[in-house]
């Protein structure tokens, strides 16, 4: 068989696998969506009805009234954008230093960075809380935003891997031209890292948007709550308002889906771990 | 030198920006206290939603009318079962709310840690007395003889049975089983097996509210020695109860019926509602669920069967209101608790929703005239509460674990319960000072 | 990596060179300073506090008393501790390799330059966005022995499906299945790594007459190793810290019969429900040591199998 034919068959097979796999993966979202449009009595029927009849759009309007949705949305947006900004500013800076700069103690610092990722959050949660209480930050959104401006280990690790792939040649050339380290970083390296930083930004965005524990512990004023806290209010002792819960969940997830859909090509095709455009 | 300056400068700007951010964003949450006009704001954390929240708002309104210098500030916090991280961290951090709504079950544990305010003297002065409530409600709200919580609502457990199924197999729908033997016989008749699959199961002892607590007491056992306060999970009658559950499981083969119990994680997937299970032990809170998801279900309730067919009993839990240690407005907070604990507050609080802890209020609601609800109320005077110990959660987990192990043939009931008794009593030793 | 040789030679170098070295050090540290501060304040200090707690009977509500190594000693005698370790290791050992395998495979499929890839990629990313609560309920429903879709479909091909979440032997595999759903995030990173491999290598291999399988083995996989390395480390750390999903599914009880009691779940239960935060802190530090050791091994062996293109 000609190589082109083989290639076509391979592609077709892969395409088929993809379709089957995606049917499986999209189930979660389907269920979310269809449940959000059903009355309570129809949700857990068997066999499952994927397309509800009648379609209960009112679940959405009721959900938005059940809790101060728009206020929560605004709060979530502010916190998420601020923390993402923090990550974009701090993490590439530090990651670059791990990858390309040489200084005493770098190895140790990196090692500690990794070590820090291994402690389960549950344990540092209490001391951290006590710390923030002493600072007087409990009751504000500061504990959810400020730490991001000082670096987050997972993103630092990821970006470090990325920076390590950038050729040293670039740097040496720039130094010969007399540029300072910081200028090299800001004007050459950071732009090259745009896509990786975008990916990190997306992850932070997602993490902050869906964060529950943080807002739970540190926000004490209902008007300052985020959407993920609001979700809890749909679950009561006597059984959850599943239709409304799914409606809010859908509303909550939509912005990220849209964001991802439009950005994914940009950062995936742009991220290189080698600095060499493929 | 120039090079260093070039870096230092941007970094400096960066830190300045941070400082600006900090100062700009700092908004302190108001912690209520007496303001200029002599008004006090009492902050209350709760996990109420829909109708319970509506009721509470009515209570607050009535309370504020009677107490014009006190304003209540209600703050919604997470309310998943047993999870109190927010309250825990707030108390540890030293700025808890003035009032918090709290599962009564936890009073013993928290009181032992010194995190609750002793309400005994305030109660005595305000005329809140033990006799006003069902005995178990007061018991569960006290620790070592002192009152630490005001009970708000309660529940009880009974046998639910599907009347249509009964008719179908020739059982009298108006004569539910009263003895264990009758229960077993009925379960046998009601079960439909198709090959290896059960199409319908008559009864699963440990499903829903069929905890070992339920059966232990039904069989006449005790979980705690009243005199010494030690846990007696291996009381012979409790062992007998667990043995019965294990035998039941073996008869129907645990692995096959495990499917029914595991997947029913939420109310809506309750196999009793879908008709896959004919009888179950559950609480009054299920009634609302049935109304919501299958209002036409033809069912009845009856006291939980016992070996003798007499001495029916059950156990109850419920919610309460507490004042955490470190609260700032204790006197004002107590006024609210007092209101909650007396008849007027109780009536507003539990309307159309819960069972009150005061008998006369339940009377007023007309529960005693409703064929289903009256059974739940009538059994209350004979209800138990779970032992009030500093390790309540540990005991609960251990009993659940022991039940699972025994029913799966992992050790005999006596071995498992001996272990529970030993573990919990050992954990309790450190509290004997 | 820091060149220790430099610091050793410092004293023998003329002062100009010393100043230059000094400057590089300062610059390096200035770059890393935000993190140095962050690390200290938000990580190191809480971690040190928790080490201290692990030697006490701290209960969050009360400071407790100093008991030295008691917590650690009690842990080693606690059967549930060992059970939780074995559950967690079981999960990690199966989940991590599977997630790498499927992650890479999926990424390779998603790397095709056909129309509509954006849609596919978004679809695979979706499960990571759905709130845990919804996911837990969805899976409980799907895996329902009698009503669930999974057993329904198996029945069509004549297989009698087990009671997934209800049986001791199937509960963890069910969890592994559920967790594999969340590989969307890792796939994104694999995709980035794939896009990174220059077409020239593939063309060269093509000219040499390599087929798809050989191309994958000799070009794709080796050049993907930095990414695999990252996901291996992160995957392992994540697997060891598995908490939210099993906790939501079993309401913290680890049913059936403690087969779903994972390490961090048990930690949480001890710290927040039994008020034994000191005990829980000890658990956390034991976990830390285990994970550190494993990561160390991965790092050391990485020199053998990871190829960075940039160096």
Can you offer a commentary on this structure?
The complex is a heterotrimer of chains A (278), B (433) and C (311). Chain A contains 13 helices and no strands. Chain A is mostly helical. Chain A folds into two domains: 3-60, no CATH class; 67-269, MetI-like (MetI-like fold, Orthogonal Bundle), CATH 1.10.3720. In chain A, helix 3 (69-99) crosses helix 7 (153-164) and helix 3 runs antiparallel to helix 10 (194-210). The mean pLDDT of chain A is 82. By secondary structure, chain B is α/β, with parallel strands linked by helices. Chain B has helices at 2-25, 50-66, 85-93, 107-112, 120-126, 135-140, 163-169, 180-190, 212-218, 236-252, 254-263, 285-293, 330-341, 343-350, 359-365, 371-378, 392-407, 413-429; strands at 40-46, 70-76, 99-103, 142-143, 146-147, 150-151, 153-154, 157-162, 192-194, 197-203, 277-283, 299-302, 314-315, 319-322, 355-356, 383-384. In chain B, strand 1 (40-46), helix 2 and strand 2 (70-76) form a beta-alpha-beta unit. Chain C has two domains: 13-53; 72-305, MetI-like (MetI-like fold, Orthogonal Bundle). Chains in contact: A-B, A-C, B-C.
CATH superfamily of the largest domain in chain A: MetI-like
- Approximate helicity band of chain C: over 70%
Catalogue the unreliable spans of chain C: none
Text of the CATH class of the largest domain in chain C = Mainly Alpha
Strand content of chain A: under 5%
What is the overall pLDDT average of chain A? 82
CATH superfamily of the largest domain in chain C: MetI-like
Largest sheet of chain C: none
- The 3D shape of chain C can be described as flat
Total helix count of chain A?
A: 13
Tell me the layout of helices and strands:
The complex is a heterotrimer of chains A (278), B (433) and C (311).
Chain A: H1 3-36, H2 58-66, H3 69-99, H4 106-116, H5 121-135, H6 142-145, H7 153-164, H8 168-176, H9 181-192, H10 194-210, H11 213-218, H12 227-232, H13 242-270
Chain B: H1 2-25, E1 40-46, H2 50-66, E2 70-76, H3 85-93, E3 99-103, H4 107-112, H5 120-126, H6 135-140, E4 142-143, E5 146-147, E6 150-151, E7 153-154, E8 157-162, H7 163-169, H8 180-190, E9 192-194, E10 197-203, H9 212-218, H10 236-252, H11 254-263, E11 277-283, H12 285-293, E12 299-302, E13 314-315, E14 319-322, H13 330-341, H14 343-350, E15 355-356, H15 359-365, H16 371-378, E16 383-384, H17 392-407, H18 413-429
Helix pairs in contact in B: 2-14, 9-10, 17-18
Chain C: H1 4-9, H2 15-54, H3 70-76, H4 79-110, H5 117-125, H6 132-142, H7 149-156, H8 168-180, H9 184-195, H10 199-207, H11 212-240, H12 244-250, H13 263-273, H14 277-305
